[in-house]
């Protein structure tokens, strides 16, 4: 390969490598930067490696340009000098003087051949006497490089396949072309310089990559040790600021729930529930942002039928939400205990309370601007309906709820909410509003009356395919003792068409209240408290010391 082509190929290779690397890394950089600290360190390390290699690449390119310029300038000077010397001898056909000029030129060991031609490109003198009086032929694989100061520079190979750079210049007399000179300079030195710089570049890339990798390994080990120490400390944590953790109530894949005592310096004590992020998620920025967002959004809601948020934040590396403790069971636990549908009066009372809490949440406005927040719960299910031993009914866990004042954290393709309580519009990926909560509450209503979940799905694909097409049989066919009016209310909640469905939770609440009065239902919180205490009351647990 001619040396000029080698240099061009090398630079093109480097540019392609840099472009490919940048495009590949930039597409993932944002995801990395929003992840764990180690991922952010990886992103920074890769960015530093790219910047360093770009800097070295430009230095490399500058070195190549300098080497080429120096090489070409020498050849140009020799070609111009030989042209001046050859002018008079060519005009007078002084072959002896031409041969002397060629011998002087060939004293340079880097020059492979020298030729002096007449105006018809016939060789008058040549470093190889055999070629005298022949027509000058181009070198093998001749390729133009550039023309500088009238000197044409081409690259190719000599007869013995040696890389050569040829400098050609016209010989003139009084502005008339009378001949030409050609100097073949060995390209090995320039090629060697290009290869050396390329080797240095590759070695630097590998060395810098190894250095960055070693630094990342060191950082990863340091972070792992620090994380293990933090997890150990958090796992053994029995207190978060003013909250004394007394008993673990439950644990999921992301957080654990504790019964805790809020203690003040003046001796005030109050039982609360504390949701604490699991140690391995404490440095996951995306999850922490969503966790804090849940707390911030839920803290806006102050209603008897919504679990109250008392505090949230970070203390001693532990992210937590302190909330009202509902001493009782969730509706799923109650249904699992009974293994049958609830009495009509009890079911109506429960849905009345939840619809009341939902209407409050849906209609909540910004305290400062008065702008509707349009909060949608998005996860109405029996697990998130809590019933206390005192007969209180509360809606909990606004963890995936959405307010128009908050940026959406839902990623494309991710269905929010439990699969068995999705609305048709959610399953079809359509725009949703508060009516999805009404549909989900209708499914819960259907479930607590019939005694079993309406449908179950193994995965979201099955749910997406089934829900929009599924025909829901009237609840009265599953439980004939239900009044027709109650059947109509339940099935209106479950209308696939949002136009036919209840427009607001208030409409549902009002229809239930009318039915309750019409049927003469007197069931209230005291009846619910009797039911709860009779079935679920347990002695107070001893505090953990």
Concise structural overview:
The protein has 545 residues and is α+β, with helices and mostly antiparallel strands. The protein has helices at residues 3-33, 37-91, 95-106, 188-235, 285-298, 331-338, 344-362, 424-427, 435-450, 460-466, 475-478, 484-493, 505-519, 525-536; strands at residues 111-118, 123-126, 140-148, 151-157, 163-173, 176-186, 239-240, 243-251, 255-263, 269-277, 309-315, 318-324, 328-330, 385-388, 393-395. It contains 14 helices and 15 strands.
Task: Supply the key terms.
nucleotide-binding; Phosphorylase Kinase, domain 1; 47% helix; alpha+beta; protein serine/threonine kinase activity; 545 residues; membrane; transmembrane helix; 14 helices; single chain; 3 domains; Prot_kinase_dom
Can you describe what's shown?
By secondary structure, this protein is an alpha+beta fold. It has three domains: 3-193, PAS domain (Beta-Lactamase, 2-Layer Sandwich), CATH 3.30.450.20; 236-324, 2-Layer Sandwich (Phosphorylase Kinase, domain 1); 328-536, Transferase(Phosphotransferase), domain 1 (Orthogonal Bundle). The protein is built from 14 helices and 15 strands. The protein has helices spanning 3-33, 37-91, 95-106, 188-235, 285-298, 331-338, 344-362, 424-427, 435-450, 460-466, 475-478, 484-493, 505-519, 525-536, and strands at 111-118, 123-126, 140-148, 151-157, 163-173, 176-186, 239-240, 243-251, 255-263, 269-277, 309-315, 318-324, 328-330, 385-388, 393-395. A six-stranded antiparallel beta sheet has the order 2-1-6-5-4-3. Strands 7-8-9-10-12-11 form a six-stranded antiparallel beta sheet, covered by helices on one side. Strands 13-14-15 form a three-stranded antiparallel beta sheet. α1 (3-33) packs antiparallel against α2 (37-91). The longest helix has 55 residues, at 37-91. The two termini are 81 Å apart. Residues 5-13 and 400-417 have low confidence and may be disordered. Pfam families: Pkinase. GO terms for molecular function: ATP binding; protein serine/threonine kinase activity. It comes from Desulfosarcina alkanivorans. This is Protein kinase domain-containing protein.
């Amino acid at each position: 390969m001619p040396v000029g082509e080698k240099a061009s190929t090398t630079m093109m290779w480097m540019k392609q490598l840099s472009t490919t690397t940048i495009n590949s890394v930039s597409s993932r950089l944002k995801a990395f930067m929003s992840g764990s600290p180690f991922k952010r360190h990886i992103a920074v390390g890769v960015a530093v490696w790219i910047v360093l290699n770009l800097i070295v690449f430009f230095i490399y390119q500058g070195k190549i340009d300098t080497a080429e310029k120096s090489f070409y300038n020498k050849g140009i000077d020799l070609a111009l000098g030989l042209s001046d010397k050859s002018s008079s001898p060519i005009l007078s056909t002084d072959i002896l003087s031409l041969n002397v000029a060629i011998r002087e030129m060939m004293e340079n060991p880097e020059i492979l051949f020298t030729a002096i031609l007449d105006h018809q490109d016939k060789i008058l003198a040549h470093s190889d006497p055999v070629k005298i009086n022949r027509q000058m032929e181009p070198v093998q694989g001749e390729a133009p490089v550039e023309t500088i100061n009238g000197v044409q520079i081409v690259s190719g190979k000599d007869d013995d396949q040696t890389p050569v750079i040829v400098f050609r210049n016209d010989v003139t007399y009084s502005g008339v072309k009378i001949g030409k000179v050609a100097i073949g300079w060995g390209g090995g030195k320039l090629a060697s310089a290009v290869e050396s710089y390329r080797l240095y570049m590759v070695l630097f890339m590998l060395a810098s990559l190894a250095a960055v990798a070693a630094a990342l390994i060191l950082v990863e080990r340091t972070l792992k040790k620090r994380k293990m120490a933090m997890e150990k400390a958090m796992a053994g944590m029995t207190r978060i600021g003013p909250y004394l953790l007394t008993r673990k109530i439950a644990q999921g894949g992301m957080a654990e729930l504790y019964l805790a005592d809020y203690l003040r310096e003046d001796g005030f004590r109050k039982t609360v529930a504390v949701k604490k992020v699991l140690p391995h998620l404490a440095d996951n920025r995306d999850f922490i942002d969503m966790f804090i967002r849940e707390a911030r959004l839920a803290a806006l809601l102050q209603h008897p039928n919504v679990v109250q948020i008392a505090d949230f934040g970070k203390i001693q590396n532990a992210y937590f939400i302190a909330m009202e403790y509902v001493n009782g069971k969730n509706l799923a636990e109650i249904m699992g205990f009974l293994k049958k549908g609830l009495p009509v009066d009890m079911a109506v009372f429960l849905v009345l309370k939840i619809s009341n809490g939902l209407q409050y949440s849906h209609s909540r406005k910004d305290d400062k601007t008065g702008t509707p927040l349009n909060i949608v719960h998005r996860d109405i299910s029996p697990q998130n309906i809590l019933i206390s031993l005192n007969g209180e009914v509360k809606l909990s866990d606004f963890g995936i709820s959405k307010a128009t004042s908050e940026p959406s954290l839902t990623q494309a393709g991710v269905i929010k909410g439990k699969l068995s309580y999705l609305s048709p519009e959610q399953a079809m990926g359509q725009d949703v509003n508060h009516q999805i909560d009404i549909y989900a509450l209708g499914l819960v209503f259907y479930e607590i009356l019939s005694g079993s979940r309406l449908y179950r799905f193994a995965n979201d694909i099955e749910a997406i395919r089934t829900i929009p097409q599924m025909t829901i049989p009237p609840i009265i066919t599953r439980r004939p003792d239900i009044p027709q009016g109650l059947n109509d209310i339940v099935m209106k909640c479950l209308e696939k068409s949002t136009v036919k469905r209840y427009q607001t939770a208030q409409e549902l609440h009002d229809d239930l209240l009318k039915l309750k009065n019409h049927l003469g239902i007197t069931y209230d919180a005291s009846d619910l408290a009797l039911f709860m205490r009779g079935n679920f009351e347990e002695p107070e647990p001893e505090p953990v010391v």
